[in-house]
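Review session, final week

We close the course with one last complete record, chosen because it touches almost every idea we covered. It is Aminotransferase-like plant mobile domain-containing protein, a protein from Stephania yunnanensis with 521 residues. Go through it on your own first, then we will talk.
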Amino acid sequence: MTITLQDVQIILGLPVDGLPITGRVDQDYDALCLTQLGFPFPENNRTGGRIQIRQLSRWFPNLPDNANDVEVQRYARAYILQLLGGTLFADKSNNLVHITYLQFLEDFEAAGQYSWGSATLARLYRQLCLAADIDGAEIAGPVILLQLWAWDRLSFLAPIMGNVLRDPVLENEELFPPPPFGHRWKHALETTRESMHVLTKYREMIDMQTPDEVIWEPYPEAVIMDLPAYCSSGRAIWRTRAPMIFFCVVEMYHPDRVMRQFGLRQMIPPLQSTNIQLHRIDLRGKTDKDWSAEHSAYVCMWNERASNIATDESLEESMDFYNPYMLWYRRITRRFMSPRGAIAEALAHGITSIHQLTLGDDVSIARIRDVAASTLTAVHADYRMHNMPSSFQASHHSSHADTPSRHDTPLYTPSVSLNEFGTPHTPSVPPNMTFEAMEAFPFDTAPTSSRHFHASPIMMNLSGSTSTRDGGMRDNDDIQPEDAQNPADVGHTDISLALNRNVRVVKRTRGGTGSHYLGSD
């Protein structure tokens, strides 16, 4: 999942289909301030073309009743500057805004032709990348977008909505357009009764969420149609595959990696490697560069956005645990943020393995199966018992082939034979199949790597390959044969590492939809 252009436009109401926000940062700040705001740029300003937001508030308090058109426009620009510097493009100073944005606000009609939404999302993607670094202690940018996006899609993170009272009627209210979708959270008056502000609690809840706790499509067509037109004017490019641009920042946008958010089938996406040098570019010492020329190739790609739209078949039903995409995803991603989240997965993993091996009419086996099934249900992991791939079914006839599973689950049915002592013997694994999931869970083992660092409890694959049990390596980009054979075993190594508090990883991931090839970072 990630924040998309659809989310930006529906939640915040920002235009996404338009010209990129780029060009030269360095401007004649005195001239810009005088012509656009009516005030000179403060003398002895050493903030690199930025002005204090409080200064704008002092220059532009309440709009006078007898204000002429020029004054109204200046107040409007000051208000927009405060919105940009305080919310959408906020930096870590928390009180400064760059004057260069005035170059896009001279003509309000022209200002509406820019893609403010894609610039906002590019800013958020880059800030997520920087904040995920082990040395990152803060985050800037449009964090309100991140928060509202999470509330809309992960209901266990959202506050409880209070009594929605009608806002007081404002003078000339009919002149204002209806608000965007994010405005509905204005009346979120109370949090849940649990201590939700604790970071570890958030991490555990995210780690242990179940598939049915994700709201993949919080904006059904009925909701979109009920919103003002400016919240859907750019829907033609919500699924474009193009770079998003904000001066020096270029962030790749790949909705084909999160197709379920658009109600479409999710396939294993092609490899997308983040350009390391491009991602390292910032404005330090480069404010005099013309970024529209510097990034002209990416500007051209953005200009062709309407011709590169990701699409697929409609998603008719939820993706099950053993879908090829899920097998691939569990192998290449970081799945846990907390040891407790990994423990829950380890428990479900082990009991699933037991459940897969306990079919037959033997009373003790049936009781073990029932205990495994009830335990999986208790830990909200019963979905793992359903829609098993055919590789779990025996390739030979069984004397118990007609014995149904009490949970209607297509599992392996073992045959019964006599061992050397003449007593019945039930093989523990299907023939011609290595079922590694039956092994004891390796809580005390973890792969060794010189890149581990005491920082994050999450395992990350640092290259484009995965080590196998025989010491070899395999490519991470394709489903491997053993994935289909051992779906419960895929990705269990990252659980053991997450459980090991003495092993940490220093590598950072990329925000947004940019890259899953973690070794490219």
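Two points worth writing down before the exam:
Residues 237 and 306 are 6 Å apart (CA to CA).
Confidence is low (pLDDT under 50) at residues 393-419, 423-490, 504-509, 514-521.
Good luck, everyone.
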